[in-house]
User: Fold phosphoinositide 5-phosphatase from Rhizoclosmatium globosum.
Amino acid sequence: MHISFCSPNAGQRLGRHVVISAGDSKGPVLVGSAQMTADRQSLGASLMFHAASDAHLPPTSGHRNIYGLLGTVQVGEDVFIGVVLDRQGVGVLGGAPVYRITRVGFFSLIESEFDDYDFTDFDKDTAPAATTAATTVSSMFNKMIGDSATAKQDQQDQKDDDEMARDRHPCSSIMKLFSAGSFYYSPEHDLTRSLWARSKSASSSTTTTTTTTTSPFDSANPTYFWNNAMLAPVLAMRKNELSQQLRTALDNSNMLILAIQGFIGIQPLPSSSSSSPVKLGILSRLSCRNAGTRFNARGIDDDGACSNFVETEVVVETKGYLASFVMVRGSVPVFWEQQGIQIAGHKVELSRGFEITALAFKKHFEALQQQYGHIHIVNLLSGKEGAEGTLVNAFQQHLAQYPTSANPNEKLYYTHFDYHSTVKAGGHEKAAVVLEQLQRHLDNWSYTLVETKPDALQPVLTQQGVLRVNCLDCLDRTNHVEFLASKVMVEKCLREMGLGNVLGTDIFLDVFQNLWADNGDWLSKIYTGTGALKTSMTRRGKQTVMGFFDDAAKSVNRFFINNFQDKHRQEAIDIVLGKQRTRSLLIPNSLTAIVEHDLANRRGEFVSYENVDIFIGTWNVNGKLPLGEPIDYWLQSRVAQQPPHLVMIGIQELIELTAQQFVQADFEKLKTTWEQHLLRVLNQISSIPYVLLRSMNMMALGLFSYVRQDCLDKVRFVEMSVCKTGLGGLGGNKGGVGLSCQYLDTTMVFVTAHLAAGESSVEERNRDYHTISDGLSFKRKSLKDHDLKVWFGDFNYRVSLPNEEARAWLERGNIGPLLSHDQLSIQRARGFAFDGYEEGHINFNPTYKYDNGTMVYDTSEKARCPSWTDRVLFRGKNLQLLEYTHTDSLLMSDHRPVRALLRVKAELIDQNARSIIKEAISKTATPLINSGLPRSSSTKSVGFMNEPIIHSVPPPLPARADDNQQPLIDFTSDGQVWDSLPVKIPATPQQSTIKIAPSSVGASVQWWQVPVDETWIVDEGDATNPFFGSNRI
Assistant:
């Protein structure tokens, strides 16, 4: 199998091609083609399969041997195709070889710059030595004390780093991820499914056996299929566009790689019976749902997926039989976060309210029970006060509310075993006492046993339940307890299979212990960047002095990696899993174009809308608590016909902004006080109860969000972020707090901000706005990526009028002259800040500055001009402002609170209906494309075409052209060329803007021989072009 390249010489009008061939005349060929204009400006790339006998490949400029295709990724304005360049054999299990991926390559489909790249020339994703971490910390300290020599060296180091960055491959972080040794695949076996899962499929089938002829890509478990998103375009073509013959040839070629991440170890065991060799294996599959590094992925997500979730399968193989025992591990299944840099302690924050968490908690365990049956939770956290105690209490509270399953085969059990307290009192050997609480279920739930036959598996025994083990990171303690439990089950299995003679030998213990220690090391390295702690206990059965020092060094490295390197690893993971929001550069082929176009036309069949009322409130409270104030007048809209679905409250100056207050204030207590008081008042004035969605404060700036209890299941993906702008970005006295969420299928972001003060500080306020806009960071999306954006807070923009004049106008009841001198309105009109945002009509008096406790504007020496510093601005589609006003009866602060009521039409996409419609369109379109017949005239046409469309099968790739040859496709207006674009022509050519070439083309005109109009260029022309702007298909 190899990958080859065809890059045009200067002046030639052929696009670049990247070709992957299975090396078999019967096998398929995958061709990636660049789409470019004549001036070599890239427009995108396309993928297409050919039969090897029909490909007529152009001359290539070079090739490399590969082991298979991982898929495609988009980085910046380029599309890369990923392949496996090197691998290492792990062993053979169940008759199928297993390989570890050790080196990958990523080649551009658009540019040839990296065709000759040395894919060994990058640092492996390994933990730095302890000395490296110490050197880095020392360098940071020297910067703080102003060491000039160190500063100069750092400047030189930065210059060197910048030069290296220019030469670095755009996919270097992705290549490090795949080449670190934690990805595995088998060309003959689906590693995403355990023997237990496959045996259950066999048991539920009409026969007692299940054949192995089905392609793994038709049955793979997406939870563990790590390159699923990378292969998505290819798998779509495989499913919808290839003939059965070519699809079978593709599957048999082993071109496509199904990769899992985790650990696989396979070792033989000694046996006195030469006819019954024994093999022992461990397969740990890391889930790619809620995947990420240590401080970037904690707890649970809205779909019930837990971070660092691993299914570990211990396999025993002997002649004619395979046995398997499965356990799972995963983070504590509540919404919680942990800050990275914590020198002492491991403080955690429960980031969602109880009611919101309960929904995700229920999804998690329902999915586990449906997949595995009985679940026995083994919680190894400390039950004392502190971070782990907080998580234990939350876990147990949700378990107490979890409904009991009506299915007698799906019971839930719970054991809390304080691992640290136990081993502290009796040593690590004492941890084995946990088995006393697990033994009954280990015996009753047994293991899976199948008889292996040619191309078939026949179930004999089936496991009935799993242990779900967790600690804080689900690494060191969890690995040790899983080792202890699996040892019991492996010994039981070997005895019942008549192979008890291998037990108790030094070789068996050595093999088994080292497999589990390796498993712990690799899972730890994936999540934290270092090997596991306490591996000396697993490898040798006891903790050693050398192991103690080894653990200390790993702890230092973990601190360094998790706080300074994990960001790049997380970005690589998100790209691989397709979670980055980018405009796709892969140009749709004929079938995809038809399906997406018709799907867009039938959008009304699977998309519905729901009105969502959102209450927005902002108040600078000047360090006061509202306990004696009737804030219900502020929180209750006068125009709302029902309680708003969402409530967002921004509070500025939770404390007075003085140095003494910043030092003495208990911000956590203040946040809790406001959080509870706001919720209490909301539930007093509402006919439908509210629950806390999430709250966060950045010192004196707080954002509090609530949701109606009957709408809990409609809000997902809640994240919060802060951005400091005070003291040059170091101080939290000014800045912004943002909340990102998705209501149904509409994304929303809410930002409360406190901008720079001072009448003349207009530019500083503008700068603060842009700093916050760019600085608020959410997972895989920025502020601008949301459908609805709302800003509210004390923006501090003033009225640029003399104080006496402004007050005179106010005394006459005329606010118009003040509004015409409002700084924010002027800056918006000039595009300097909040460009594109809207604001409701202001018909209320300025909200600042009053004498505390009075209705009188500022009488101090500064005599500040009355101004509307407290504002609400918004941006989005399908949006209506229902109310915008202030409350002048709350006098405790020098500001008056402001509120707004917005109504948004939120989208709801019925994914099941969409899939059914998409499948139906695909089935209808596929035979028409293959036959070249026109589509039904009832089908809506694309863009400016008024006739049905003919889609022809793409031709073989053309031979390399000479400079003097006529271009294959020419744009008549300016000579631009798009070499591989699958151009569509109408059934009645004379009625189209596309003009057929002269008769020299021949009688049977095909699309690749037709000159086309320039409006087909992506994002050029006007809205009649189906490839223009939002119309692009």
Notes: Residues 183-200+217-577 form one domain. Residues 506-528 form the longest helix (23 residues).
